[in-house]
Amino acid sequence: MNASPFILFGNVHLITMAIIVLVAVFLPLVCKNQSISNKSLISKIIAFIILLHVIISPYKDLYLLQNPYNWKEILPIHMCDLSEIFLAAFLLGGPKILYKCAFFWGLAGASMAIITPDIPVIDLDYAFFMIGHGMIVIGIMYATISLGNRPYAKDILTVSAITAFVLLPAIYLINLALGDFINFKGEVQPTNYWYLIAKPAGASLMDAFPEPPLHLLITTPLAIAMFYLIYIPYAIKDKLAK
Question: What would the mean pLDDT of 156-165 be, rounded to a whole number?
Answer without folding.
Answer: 95
